[in-house]
Amino acid sequence: EQINKGNYEHYMQKEIHEQPESLKTTMRGRLIRGGSCKAKTVLLGGLKDHLKTIRRSRRIVFIGCGTSYNAALAARPILEELSGVPVTMEIASDLLDRQGPIYREDTAVFVSQSGETADTLLALEYALENGALCVGITNTVGSAIARHTHCGIHINAGCEIGVASTKAYTSQIVVMAMLALAIGGDTISNQARREAVIDGLFDLPNNVREVLKLDQEMKDLAKLLVAEQSLLVFGRGYNYATALEGALKVKEVALMHSEGILAGEMKHGPLALVDENLPIVVIATRDACFSKQQSVIQQLHARKGRLIVMCSKGDANAVCLGGSCRIIEVPQVEDCLQPVVNIIPLQLLAYHLTVLRGFNVDQPRNLAKSVTTQ
Ligand code: AGP
């Protein structure tokens, strides 16, 4: 059942729309919310013998490629916040090129949908040689990364066929949010935050179902952008990863140049590109960075930027002060889970752009689902 297209025209389309279900499967049996006096907690069976070691590590190093790297980047802030352990990021090929430092006291977390990506696998061998505790987060039971790591968490998103990773991405973020909760443990100081994140996880499938209703709106936006050469995506904080991942989807399947930009870097170069022609998506949903994003929008307006702003429901007036812009309104969720909701309109946009531009959705030219060579 998982490997036919059902009523959909393409696997990518089907996999985007099945995210409310794939997220539920990812969380099933792992999130516990008891009666009124029972604590809310997370159970990750595959890690139970290693949590103490992870908590005592010198640092947590996330290692992956492409979308899997972006998912780890999205989860990094909540990992840092709840675990109190420093978290660093490595693109697998770059770690290998540099032969970067990995220590025995490190926990190295390998994130991969297929579990077979050559660069990630070689980075795993390298981390094992250097004595780190190696944790695998994969979507493929029995894959090389699942077999060679010391312990791990299955993503359980179900089989993903489209070369463009969609449902695996959102499930990876959820797995890493649960990892943050598990490492954080049940200290009193972060109890309220932990419970809010758990409640947010329980509500996430419904919020994702809600945001999927933007399908037609994203198709209309795709019609508007179909002939463009380029699309910029500005994000920051939790949603810097959303900007990178949204741009990756657009370039990978719609074959349109697209770049995810850290909004805090805008004045250090990208601002020179802004004019009345280049379309720019700005992610400005509510979180601690909101007022900074309002100011970015004002500066882009001042340069007559052609803006498409993604904001929380009801915030259209708050983000579009003093200029015109197209709005994408999404449900507001717990800040660390907002990347799961925010990527979905961009997945839909990439999908519709690809269909309208007449390219192969599920098998983009030059790409393979699993990159098993270096
Ligand atoms: C995602 O849309 C891409 N196809 C690609 O970036 C992919 O995420 C990357 O090759 C890593 O694959 P993995 O998750 O199977 O290791």
Automatic annotation (TrEMBL):
Gene Ontology molecular functions? carbohydrate derivative binding; glutamine-fructose-6-phosphate transaminase (isomerizing) activity
Instruction: Please name the GO terms of the biological process aspect recorded for this protein, alphabetically.
Output: fructose 6-phosphate metabolic process; protein N-linked glycosylation; UDP-N-acetylglucosamine metabolic process
Signal peptide annotation: none
Which catalytic reaction applies to this protein? D-fructose 6-phosphate + L-glutamine = D-glucosamine 6-phosphate + L-glutamate
Q: Where is the SIS domain?
A: 50-189, 221-364
Q: Transmembrane helix as a keyword?
A: no
EC number(s) recorded for this UniProt protein: 2.6.1.16
Q: Which keywords label this protein?
A: Aminotransferase, Glutamine amidotransferase, Repeat, Transferase
Q: In which pathway does it act?
A: Nucleotide-sugar biosynthesis; UDP-N-acetyl-alpha-D-glucosamine biosynthesis; alpha-D-glucosamine 6-phosphate from D-fructose 6-phosphate: step 1/1
Q: What class of enzyme is it?
A: transferase
Recorded protein name is glutamine--fructose-6-phosphate transaminase (isomerizing)
Source organism per UniProt: Carya illinoinensis (Pecan)
